[in-house]
């Protein structure tokens, strides 16, 4: 049932047909093909409403044009799908792992169970703790890059199948991100023990599953391109980690903290308006793939009481811009709520997402195809030969 408050996100049949410039029969065809979601109108029993964001997406696709160069350019920025995958997808504003709703899965599954699903593994993997790489005076992130780099260059690793190798790499990755205890416990429990946050172990389990994959993210694409060349799983993981480390992706927590610090110093309303006046996108708010709101953020924020500053900032942003929180600000709230150590947000996000990199890499390797896009050249005119 549609909440009457959100009716603005839906269109009547007449509005939908007018926006698309089509007859109602064509509108029905879009609905039957799953391109437009339809719901009953809570205020009029005999009337249907059509999701406005689906109609906007169809219009955007139409206006983009069908020339090859336009399609190629659009795929690189929240555009059309460019790779066939069975790993995960986003549909109707929800994230699905091999057809399973990720939010529902996160209510009880462990990261190991999520990996078994995403990898289509014959058995649930186990991420064994290992001794972290010993580099005196190095940061946790430097140690992580070094450990995965060594694994990428090691040709002596021998496993029965790719899933076993993937499980080894996840254990190596996690052990060099967090000083894990040596035990057979699920990974989230070992992380909680390492951070003296046992009481919050179930929250850590939930966020790890929610963050395990996100369709074809930049880091998943980097891992897939590497895997397509015949490189090892370790090399593919290293490529994923390199792409993930940027502030526009996995290290977005840095920008979220900057916004939260501004809100704490000058008040939420002033901070929001300052960021907007400087043409800064509001870190942690609004997601291209979730126009109605990030379901992962909503689920995680409902599982604990976020800090007062985060609650106030969310309310202020929504009242000013209508944008809803993303998983990044939910993760920042979790770290503060659980009093986790410095670097915990990046560690949790990257450990979880490494499961997705392995899933995409295995799928790409077994497809046997090379990913080699073409570039649309816009530079100086090429010289003519005499």
Care to give the gist of this entry?
The protein contains 18 helices and 6 strands. The chain has helices at residues 13-20, 24-32, 52-64, 68-75, 102-106, 111-118, 140-153, 162-177, 187-194, 201-210, 218-228, 233-244, 253-266, 268-277, 295-301, 308-321, 327-337, 344-367; strands at residues 10-12, 38-41, 44-51, 88-91, 94-97, 100-101.
Give a description of the structure.
By secondary structure, the chain is mainly alpha-helical. It folds into two domains: 4-64, no CATH class; 77-386, Citrate Synthase, domain 1, CATH 1.10.580. It has helices spanning 13-20, 24-32, 52-64, 68-75, 102-106, 111-118, 140-153, 162-177, 187-194, 201-210, 218-228, 233-244, 253-266, 268-277, 295-301, 308-321, 327-337, 344-367, and strands at residues 10-12, 38-41, 44-51, 88-91, 94-97, 100-101. A three-stranded antiparallel beta sheet has the order 1-3-2. A three-stranded antiparallel beta sheet has the order 4-5-6. The longest helix is centred in the last third of the chain and has 24 residues, at 344-367. Residues 1-5 have low confidence and may be disordered.
């Amino acid at each position: 049932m549609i909440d009457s408050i959100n009716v603005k996100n839906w269109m009547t049949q007449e509005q939908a047909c007018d926006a698309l410039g089509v007859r109602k029969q064509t509108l029905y065809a879009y609905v039957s093909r799953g391109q437009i979601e339809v719901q009953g109108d809570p205020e009029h029993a005999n009337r249907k409403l059509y999701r406005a964001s689906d109609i906007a997406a169809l219009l955007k696709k139409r206006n983009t044009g069908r020339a090859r160069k336009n399609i190629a350019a659009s795929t690189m920025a929240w555009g059309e799908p460019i790779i066939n995958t069975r790993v995960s997808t986003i549909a109707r504003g929800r994230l699905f792992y091999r057809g399973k709703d990720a939010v529902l899965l996160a209510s009880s599954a462990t990261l190991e169970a999520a990996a078994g699903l995403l990898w289509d593994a014959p058995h649930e993997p186990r991420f064994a703790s290992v001794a972290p790489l010993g580099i005196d005076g190095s940061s946790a992130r430097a140690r992580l890059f070094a450990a995965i780099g060594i694994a990428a260059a090691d040709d002596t690793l021998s496993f029965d199948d790719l899933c076993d190798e993937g499980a080894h790499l996840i254990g190596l990755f996690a052990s060099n991100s967090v000083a894990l205890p040596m035990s057979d416990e699920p990974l989230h429990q070992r992380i909680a023990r390492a951070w003296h946050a046992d009481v919050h172990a179930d929250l850590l389990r939930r966020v790890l599953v929610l963050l395990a994959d996100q369709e074809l993210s930049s880091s998943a694409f980097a891992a897939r391109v590497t895997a397509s060349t015949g490189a090892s799983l370790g090399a593919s993981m290293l490529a994923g980690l390199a792409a993930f480390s940027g502030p526009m992706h996995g290290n977005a927590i840095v920008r979220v903290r900057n916004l939260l610090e501004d809100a704490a110093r000058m008040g939420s309303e002033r901070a929001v308006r300052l960021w907007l006046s400087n043409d800064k996108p509001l870190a942690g708010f609004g997601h291209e793939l979730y126009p109605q709101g990030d379901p992962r953020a909503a689920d995680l924020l409902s599982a604990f009481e976020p800090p007062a500053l985060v609650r106030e900032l969310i309310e202020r942003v929504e009242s000013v811009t209508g944008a809803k929180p993303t998983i990044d600000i939910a993760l920042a709230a979790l770290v503060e709520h659980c009093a986790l150590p410095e670097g915990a947000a990046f560690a949790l996000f990257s450990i979880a997402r490494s499961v997705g990199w392995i899933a995409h890499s295995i799928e790409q390797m077994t497809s046997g195809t090379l990913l080699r896009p073409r570039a649309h050249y816009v530079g100086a005119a090429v010289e003519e030969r005499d």
